[in-house]
Amino acid sequence: MDKDVWYKKGVRFSCTQCGRCCTGPEGFVWVNDNEMKKIAQYLNISLEELKEKHTHLVKREENPKNGSLKKYKKKRSLTEIPSEKNPGDFDCTFLAEDGACSIYPHRPKQCRTYPFWPEILKSKRSWENEARYCEGINHKEANVVAFPSIQENLTEQIQYERTHKPSEES
Ligand code: SF4
Ligand code: SF4
């Protein structure tokens, strides 16, 4: 991966657990079979119960840039519910009252690698734009996340996006 990138000296980020990335407009938090099994075990519920209460199948996704549709057969996302605190927004069902993630040790990869996603790291500008949304980005008390750690997260996210295995049920 290219080492001559704008973030080679690291970036300031530390999650404040404000919970903002777990609420907001409707979106997708992709979750695969392996992740669902681990979450179900952690919650001590069956896989079926987890799927029914906390996930849903997504058959299509619209590209916001050009309106084109990506069609999926068996891809799952965590479910969101209308937010009580912020009317008009949608909360992940694992978002706790205090803004923390109630499955934190087993949250999906997409949550783990945020904000080190390709679309956010693609330029300093996109990173700064994301900082308007995530208070942990460029937070004055945050430590600098070093380049190797950024790359590790970025690579994991890219690989996950490429290899995300859809759920196996019909
Ligand atoms: S928006 Fe940023 S600071 Fe807030 S919970 Fe998400 S990652 Fe953490
Ligand atoms: S699983 Fe946890 S970290 Fe991910 S969106 Fe839901 S509450 Fe947030």
Describe this structure in words.
The protein is an alpha+beta fold and 170 residues long. It has one domain (11-163). It contains 6 helices and 6 strands, in the order E-H-H-E-E-E-E-H-H-H-E-H. It has helices at residues 33-43, 47-54, 109-113, 118-121, 124-131, 147-163, and strands spanning 11-12, 55-62, 69-78, 80-82, 90-92, 144-145. The strands form 3 sheets. The protein has a two-stranded antiparallel ribbon with strand order 1-6. The relative contact order is 0.24. One iron/sulfur cluster (SF4) binds next to loops.
Bound chemical compounds: iron/sulfur cluster
In the sheet with the most strands, the strands line up as: 1-6
Count of extended strands:
6
The major β-sheet equals: 2 strands, antiparallel
> For the residues shown, what is the average pLDDT?
89
Rg, rounded, reads 17 Å
Number of domains: 1
Order of helices and strands: EHHEEEEHHHEH
How far the N terminus sits from the C terminus, by CA atoms, comes to 37 Å
Tally of separate helices: 6
What level of helicity do the residues show? 25-40%
Q: Low-confidence spans: pLDDT under 50, at least 5 residues?
A: none
Structural class: alpha+beta
Beta-sheet strand percentage? 15-25%
C-alpha geometry: globular
